Amino acid sequence: MSGSSSREATSAAGDGNYKLEIKEYGGGKGPVRWFFKEDSCVAMIDVPGCSVAPSSYSLEKTHVGFQTEEVDQNNHSLPVRTYIGFVKFPAVYDSKHAKIWVVNGVLWITVTKHQGRQG
Hints:
Elements: E1 9-14, E2 18-24, E3 32-36, E4 40-46, E5 56-59, E6 63-71, E7 79-88, E8 99-103, E9 106-112
């Protein structure tokens, strides 16, 4: 049998502080890169092919959940790949007020420290 399969592949990566599930043809993984500043924490997640804000996200007490999609360039209503996951932040950060956006295939999540708390 030759040709491409119409079966969807799912892959997942995680270490307890994050989980990234990718639904696509062929599977894949996406690492999380962390940057800690004096008053905030930034998580950067690779979501190749995505260029718009997540289609859905949730801001929880300890984590930020998200779903974002890469769309077919010829048929913008057809997703090619879906990224679903969450990033868990240490308790000193205020995940409920996170800022989340996508730039050039990277999902950025920024959380600030709770007011009055020190790391």
